[in-house]
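Work Package 3 (structural annotation) set out to generate three-dimensional models for the target panel prioritized at the project kickoff. During this period the team completed the workflow that converts sequence records into discrete structure tokens, so that structures can be stored uniformly alongside our sequence database. As a representative example, we reproduce one entry of 213 residues exactly as it appears in the project archive.
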Amino acid sequence: MLGKLLAVLMRNFFALLYHQFAWAYDFVAACVSLGMWKQWVKSTLPYLNGPRVLEIGHGPGHLLLAMAGKGLIATGLDESRWMGKIALKKIKETTTSTQLLNGYAQSLPFSKAAYNQIVTTFPSEFILENATLQEIRRVLVKNGSLIVLPYAWITGRRLSDRLARGLFYFTNQAPDWDDRFLAPFHLAGFQTEVKFIEQDRSTVVLIRAFKLD
């Protein structure tokens, strides 16, 4: 009961953090992840070859800048106008031509087959909605892929690692893996592959969902 209550409180807290308190997002994310948040997000980069990549829920824009640095044609979409302002400020400080849009994953403002790949890191439940997955299929090219990083486990042995791991597990921020998580992707017509990426003091879960028709 307490765990469920904490999970609800954490969900509401992160909702505020992603919107009205977006200015504090990087600091809080770094604290709760013991400084590993950006490392986790960028673990998707080796699987992003584009050339045209859409990031859904771009947040502060760290992955967008990393993709641009890799030479990819990156576009970011986020429903949070607060995050859009933060990411835009970062992009304006560079020479990239990354495009940002405000919108929702359930109704993507793009034409059919517009992107080779779509990526989303630490998304909320919207990624499992059939409306979202059908829209993603629509804007992906044939043989395109969706890359989803749902969560990461802290595996280090330091006291701080153990405390953070316990908090993540207790609040359901990093649940045990269950193949049933893939069911919505299969129902939407994707073929999936799951990777567990071992990093120093953590393990990242990565889902690759392929549109083959």
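The two ends are 44 Å apart (CA to CA).
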